[in-house]
Write the C-alpha cells for this entry.
Amino acid sequence: MSALKLGVVTAAAALMLAGCGKGDVADVSLGIFTLKDITVNAFVDPEVPGVTCHVASIESPLSLTDPSESAVSCRQTGEITPAMIERIKTSGSDGDVIFSKSKSVFLKRLKIRRIFDAKNQTLI
C-alpha cells in the first residue's frame, strides 16, 4: 500500500513540475475558477554565486498582478568569498538590482536588490 502512495505522490509532483520553465521551481494553480497561479522561480546572484534567491508570485495571463503580491527568500547555498564581497557595490543604502521582472501592463516591475551591511558583514 505504501508503494502505491509513493507512486501517486511522485506522479503528482511530476505533473506539477511539468509546466515549469527554466528557473521555475513550482507552478501551483489557485483553482479551476481562477486564472491565477503561484509561480516560484529560483535564481543565483550573478556577483555572489553562493546565494540563491526564490521568488514566489501570483501570475495571471491578463498580467494584472501586483508586485506587492510577491515573496522573496534568499539563502546561502555555497561559499561566499571575500573576493565576491569586494566586487559588489557597498556604498549607499539602495543596493544593486540583481533581479527585475515586468509584473503588469501598467509598467509595474518587481525588483530585488542586494544590500551589503558592512557593520554586520551580512548580505541582505
